């Protein structure tokens, strides 16, 4: 069995194979990080990279949060109005349904995912920045 198989068909496969071996060698050779090699073997490289990405986004969120609120305050009201107009006025609602049909039937696998993300974006714009996607209680239940 070879340690590194470079007979992979794509350059991406070769890149990830070399990067994986390089990461394991660097972790195993560092005195303080040498205990991460068995941990990495147990959980896998993808889980470790997910944990690093989670830590990275948590550390950068304090820097980007004021920027996100500013962009939300600029883009929230126009997108809220656009969503309301496209849902209620006839020609725009027809164009919205036609765009949904076009995205689902003419765009490949990316289409439905794109439509769902745009729908969630407009739904979040209608709710505002301080609300979350919480279920609404039923009438008369509480």
Overall description:
The protein is mainly alpha-helical and 142 residues long. The chain has two domains: 1-43, no CATH class; 61-133, no CATH class. The radius of gyration is 24 Å and the shape is elongated. Helix 3 crosses helix 5 (110-127) and helix 4 runs antiparallel to helix 5. The chain has five helices and no strands. The N and C termini lie far apart (65 Å).
Please render the helix and strand layout as text.
Layout lengths: L10 H19 L6 H8 L1 H44 L1 H17 L3 H18 L15
Helix pairs in contact: 3-4, 3-5, 4-5
Describe the structure concisely for a colleague.
By secondary structure, the chain is mainly α.
Labels describing this entry:
142 residues; mainly alpha; elongated
Structural class, from helix and strand content?
mainly alpha
Mean pLDDT, nearest integer? 76
Question: How does the overall form come out from the CA principal axes?
Answer: elongated
Oligomerization category of the chains in this entry: single chain
Span between N and C termini? 65 Å
- Portion in beta strands: under 5%
- Count the E strands: 0
**Over all CA atoms, what is the radius of gyration?**
24 Å
N-to-C series of helices and strands: HHHHH
Major β-sheet annotation: none
**What share of the residues lie within helices?**
over 70%
Instruction: List low-confidence stretches.
Output: none
Total discrete domains: 2
Q: What's the tally of helices?
A: 5
